[in-house]
Structures are given as C-alpha cells and as structure tokens.
Description:
The protein is an all-alpha fold. It is 78% helix and 0% strand. The longest helix is centred in the last third of the chain and has 25 residues, at 38-62. The protein is built from 3 helices and no strands. The mean pLDDT is 91.
Amino acid sequence: MKLTCYLCVAMLVTLAVFGGIYAFTGFNALLFLCLNNQTVYRSFLAVTFVASLFTVYSLIVFKPFRGLK
C-alpha cells in the first residue's frame, strides 16, 4: 500500500513538472516523450487521473496528518 502511494505521488509530481514546462514554454514535453502517440499520451493522463483519486482517497481514509497539531 505504501509503494502504491509513493508511485501515485511520483506520477502526480511528474505530471506537474511536465505541466509547468508546457505552461511556461508552450512545448508539450510529455507528448514529445510519448513520441507524439496520442494513445500513449492519453493513457498516461488517464492513469494519472486515477492516481490522483487514489491519493485523495488515501489521505481521507488513512489520515497521515492526524498526529500533527
């Protein structure tokens, strides 16, 4: 479960970095790394969307910040 959470957060960070590159330069580096293949590009975006849902779910259910005040 911990590995899944790390993987999901890593995917979200990767998407954020590529989104920042696209926002500041106008160059879609993620699409470039997917070799301009729309199927691979959209599949990565779909899997990252599910990863974000799992991350929100794990933050709600497992409450990792419960002890902090």
